[in-house]
Design goal:
Elements (H helix, E strand, L loop, with lengths): L2 E9 L3 H12 L4 E5 L28 H12 L7 E2 L6 E2 L4 H15 L2 E4 L2 E8 L2 E9 L2 E12 L5 H5 L4 E3 L10 E2 L2 E4 L3 H8 L5 E5 L2 E12 L4 H7 L8 E5 L5 E5 L11 H25 L7 E4 L4 E2 L3 E3 L7 H5 L7 E5 L3 E4 L6 E4 L7 E4 L11 E3 L8 H7 L2 H20 L9 H10 L17
Parallel strand pairs: 1-2, 1-8, 2-5, 8-23
Antiparallel strand pairs: 3-4, 6-7, 7-8, 9-18, 10-17, 11-15, 11-16, 12-13, 13-14, 14-15, 19-22, 20-21
The chain binds flavin-adenine dinucleotide (FAD).
The site of flavin-adenine dinucleotide has 36 residues, from α1, β2, β6, β17 and α10.
Amino acid sequence: MAEFDCDVAVIGGGVTGVAAGIAAARQGARTLLLEPRPFVGGNATTGLCLHNYVTRYGRQVVFGLAQEIVDELIAMGGAVGHVPYEGFTSAVTPVDGNYFRIKTTEMLARAGVQVLYGATVVDVQTRGRGIESLRFAAKGGLHALRARNVIDATGDGDIAAMAGVPFRKGDGPRERMQPISMILHFHNVDTRRIAAELGEIAPAMASRPEGGEPIPVYFNGSFSKWNDAIMAEGLFPNRDRHVFFNTVWPDQINVNTSAVLDLDGTDPVQLSRATVELTAQCARIGDFLKRHVPGFEHSYCIPAAIPGVRESRNINGRYQLSDEDVLEGRKFEDTIGQVCFPVDIHAPESSQAIFHQIGGDGAFDIPYRTMLPADYDNLVVAGRCVSATHVAHGATRNMAPCLVMGEAAGTAAAMASAAGGQAGTLAVQALQDELLKNRVYLGEAFAHRTETHV
Ligand SMILES: Cc1cc2nc3c(=O)[nH]c(=O)nc-3n(C[C@H](O)[C@H](O)[C@H](O)COP(=O)(O)OP(=O)(O)OC[C@H]3O[C@@H](n4cnc5c(N)ncnc54)[C@H](O)[C@@H]3O)c2cc1C
């Protein structure tokens, strides 16, 4: 058994962990990131849009590291920027999932983060108000890790749950969670024809970074035209099935429509069942689209490497983001960033997507307290599992909020470590000043505290 020691331990290398790791290491913290899979990026590697940087009124509120990643992706041809869309959101940010993985792997290395792949945390030891050490399984067996500050970026809140932090699951007493889905990647498609056949409204159009004619990069719609064939073949249990498309290429497209209901992504047996069912669903959907839908005739379909869990545990932190906080676009003194994607709930009983817009000026703040468990001081919980109600989680679970939370968590953990302290007792004003310096947008109320922001 090997023993590891660091200032900041980031557990999980999805979008949240990637941002947390880069931010912590840039602050000078000795940063270790543990990730079970042989790649970072989590759900972003499946090629989804980074929702969302721009409010429904067309104002960008997400900047900082989240914007830097998009800029870097544009430079390598893996993104096309923030593209106007006249649907449930005013702009979309499509990226190539593999480029996201390549770029963030490189950014972590450049920042000096030590990433251990194949590493799953299985146990934590606590003492008083602290996480004293963690045990993780990796090549060679079980290993020990001590860190001054720990960031739970596992999506599922595994570390918090192991430490006994209270949490809730799903939509209330029945604990029904949003469905688990697997994205399908198609090669050799005609995206213009697909957009014309399936798009509900005009697709978001953008030119690739190297130039050329605009191509459809995002659209959503439904399979209503094929209801009869779908029901006859038993492809989906419901008619008028929703579907979401995105791409940054003229001849490739990602399709988000598969789903399994009533499974808990924190249960290994249920998650494995989801993987088997979704892999089979992807094959059936791929075959159906090829046979029925213009634009897919010559396509080649690859299921994403991982099933995507939309919802599992959300911790009960020092503050729980409420339905009203999100729906009224509330602002908080201890904000660590503004975010703006609408509440996006794929109904637990049907998988059909329901959106609720953010009120006020179209953006809400994420209070630092939502990332802090009440009973621990050196644990920060960021990303999908942050403290939020079922409805509020519908707005925080998307990737721009996760990047914002990750950057704040990494910055806080590193600042606290540098002072020999704990993130849970860090002065939030100092954290905000550091975030502002790094071009994080905290809202108009903070304009007087920064000269650098646009
Ligand atoms: C089907 C689907 C479609 C979606 N569409 C969009 C979209 O279009 N746009 C958008 O912005 N968002 C979308 N989302 C939401 C978004 O992708 C996720 O909520 C977000 O990526 C979560 O990021 P995360 O870093 O918190 O978690 P994850 O990406 O889940 O990362 C968590 C990481 O922690 C690791 N981990 C887990 N447990 C442990 C452990 N015990 N020890 C060590 N490591 C561990 C995992 O391997 C994983 O890499 C979608 C989600 C799904 C499921």
